[in-house]
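Journal club side-thread
Mid-discussion, someone asked how the predicted structure for our own chain would compare to the paper's figures. Pasting it here so we can look after the session.
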Amino acid sequence: MRKAILHLKRSDPVLKAIIQRVGPYGQKMAPADFPALARSIVYQQLSGKAAATIYGRLEAAVSRRVTPRAVLKLDEARMRSLGLSKQKTAYLRDLAQKTLTREVDFRTLPELPDQEVIAHLTAVKGIGVWTAQMFLIFALGRPDVLPTADLGIRAAMKKQYGLPNLPKPAEMETIAAAWRPYCSVACWYLWRSLDNRAAL
């Protein structure tokens, strides 16, 4: 990690100032498994507190073991009673089904290139590119992911780089060119500059 920090400090004075202000890199990794991805679905478009409450109810309903079979044993009405929307219930059930049939195989994901992981995961209903990118960063520990759709990263870039508007993907790529091959580390610092917490 020291190599990544040195590279970012040398290549981008704006990021150097952020790194000095935020302090040591301290990203905690999530397991690259079914519960981590299920949790990310629950957290979509909710405040952290509300999502944590709902996910806690799901854990309690399956005796704290969120597995594909345990999720599918809950009928849809029971899942809805936990606070899950109709859509998220469908997404979780689709993820569970595809995991059981090995359409999503968590054992092989660490061996796949980033774009193949994204293609693999976005085959599941409700999992878009952003969620797959968060999985790449926070579960698989990929060092060079730039989530151009992430509102937190866009807001941090606007603020830290003095941009008039939220940057579009092409502008983000231009700024991030200096960070490669450590975009994920740079993004962690940008999130922390806004004191954000990732959902995964």
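Post-session note: The chain has two domains: 2-28+145-193, 34-128.
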